[in-house]
Amino acid sequence: MLSKKTRMALVKAGVALTVTMTSIGVGSLSGGELALAAVINTQSGTLTVKAASLWAYSSPNWSAKSRTYPAGTTMKVVEKHEVDGRYMYKLENGLYISANTLYVTFSPDTASLPAPAPSPAPAEQAGDTRVTTANLNMRSGPGTGYSILTTIPKGASVSVASVSGGWAKVTYGGRTGYVSTSYLSAPATAPAPAPAPTPAPESPSGDVRKTTANLNMRSGPGTGYSILMTIPNGSSVTVSSVSGGWAKVTYGGRTGYVSTSYLTQPVTTAPAPAPEPVTPAEDNRTTLYNLNMRSGPGTGYSILVTIPKGTSIPVSSVSGGWAKVTYSGRTGYVSAAYLSEPQAPVVKPDLPMMLTIEAAPNESYANQDIVIKGWALDDSGIKDVGILLDGVQIGTASRYSRPDVENAYTTYESRANSGFEFTIPKSGVSIGTHTVTVRAAGMDDTIKENTYTTVMVKESPIVTVTSHTSGAAVRTEKTTIEGFALNVDGVSQVSVELNGTKIGNAVIGLARTGMETYAAYADPSNSGFIFTFDTKAMVQGNNSIKLVMTGKDGTLKSETITLASNEFYIEKAYPQTLTYYAKAELAKGAAIKQVDGKWIAATVEDIRYYMDPANFMNDYIGKYMFMKLSYIEVDNAVLEQMLAGKGILSGKAQVFKDACKENNINPIYVIAHALLETGNGTSVLANGVLVKEKHVVFNDLFSPVIPVDPPVMVYNMFGIGAYDGNAVLWGSERALDKGWTTPDLAIAGGIKFLAESYINNITYMQNTLYTMRYRFEGYGLWHQYSTDIAWHYKQARIIQREFAKIPNLPRFEFEIPTFKEELPQQ
């Protein structure tokens, strides 16, 4: 295929182009046509690269760049191809490379040179002169596989030296080569030729051919028809007819049309019909007279319109003295005798694109801008000069006139504004090694580029966490990470990752004092950052917190710390709305709240507030009302510290721990519960009550009373049975019933009671302070530990206070209630 510039020059001159492909790069057909590459010859040899660096291609396609070879590289050549009007060598390693002698040298292998064809016996007498009947390609050898030397215009006289095998050796315009005899007039002295035999049918019965490429079968004879299927390369197809370059074939039970260009020739003894003359695309000619356009190629066809003399009309084909033309939107036929002849080709040399870098990137920069200058030329004109940093285009160079270049290369038609310049600001180049590419693009999309390697050196960026020491434990619902980040060109972002997953971006640009030593960096006094995240996303144990700073120049810097979490969250769904349960609690009539030391009835709004998990789950105190109360291992020293100075409970750490372990209850919760119920070990029930008599019916003041003889001293550490109004009476009678006659028995017995009645009870499942106070299962709110609507929060306060004293807490699980969505009217 000719290059775009060559095709345009030929079209302007009105020259017929004949391109014969003897070898096709086979690929999958998507549109009914292949990207063709003509094999010029199979001459093998050795190629040496002359250019400083030269691209090699993965296929015979100027866009299929694969890799570059430096000057002096030698490689084995196996074939020569014509690709888009230029030449390529196919290398032994399967790649392709330019055959332009400006860039390579080629030494043919002596052994592989083709043996000269035997000299044909001259078929014509000396001085045989003939006339071309069409624009005709002169080739370097007798066959379409040889390169085209020139195109001889229709009607030109050529001197014929010999004729053999349908090819004539001729001389024209001082050049000697071979042309097809099909497009030469008969010799003047030759006898009249015998009438041409009647051609055999195009596709005789039983015509079977093979595909020479993966070939699209279409629904009609043309690329505009839909594709029915793709027939694999080498497949046998049955041909029923051939017309206009398309064959009607059957394959795999389906019938359709394929291009005959990719089928083998039929086996037949009938002579192949002579090819039709070729007319170049956009062949425009001028009418020499007022000329009739007819509906067909002959005077017997009707006249469609008369074309005035001197009119330029496009010719699509010429055959049998008639030209198929288009005029005023109509297509028909006119006599070619009354049209001007096409001009002989004037092919302008295909000038190479030139790219010269006069100020190239340095090997390294110490925090400096990168300045690039040079000039570029292409015969089609330079569209733009792009600058790429690490393979990504970052801008287009400014262009200006370079009279010195433009005066030195006058053969280039389009050479204005050949100079260019571009500055890559240092603030846009990160620390480290980079590639800088200068890419010039011609108006005809020709590309030429130079690539350089450079290193940018700057002060190292800094990102530091100041709020947490690596390995610290996290005990709150939300944790705030603080620190500072510095970069020579400024900071654009600080992202935060938790265990490898990004969870957000920190707020940056915060004021920070004491940064005077960092004067080399951009705005150190505003280098602070802060990020707050929900610790529910953390896993138990160690968690990786990675902060990644991105500088405004693209430089990345990270800092990683480890934070430990001992909390795990689950949700428990309830079937009704929060308002429903708050009203149900109010309906019981027992909900109370404490105001100024007095107990009063709670409102539905009061109850709803203390029922709503949203008011407490993100509270560093309130969250403990949702903590599961199962046993955890705690050092005795911690428990002793909690009980120190707490009245009768002081020194009882081992008693609490043993009973908690036996009954699977959290000892810190139990102690917090006991401290609340006993007023830090000072209540009457905790310090012992002497029981002399008891009611027959518990919690019934009007039931009979019986004596206790002898009287018994009892203890109650958890207010069990201590109902409002007569707490000491009923609390002591319950302690008597349970046999809690010593502080140790009261502690162990009370813990067992809590475990069996609430925390570990398989029916009630009240394993959190929240569910001990508000139990929603069943047909109503009942089996609740306290009537104080804030009891669970008060217990949580004590637990949090004690937890804050423990350096290494074990894993905690939190159960968060969820409720049915409230409707608007609710």
UniProtKB/TrEMBL annotation:
What superkingdom heads the lineage?
Bacteria
Q: Where is the composition biased (Pro residues)?
A: 190-202
Q: Where is this region: Disordered?
A: 187-214
By its UniProt entry, which PROSITE patterns does this protein fall under? SH3B
Spell out the InterPro entries in the cross-references.
Answer: Cell_Wall_Dynamics_Protein (IPR052354), DUF5776 (IPR044081), Ig-like_fold (IPR013783), MGlyc_endo_b_GlcNAc-like_dom (IPR002901), SH3-like_bac-type (IPR003646)
SH3b domain residues: 126-188, 205-267, 281-343
Q: What is this protein called?
A: Beta-N-acetylglucosaminidase/uncharacterized protein YraI
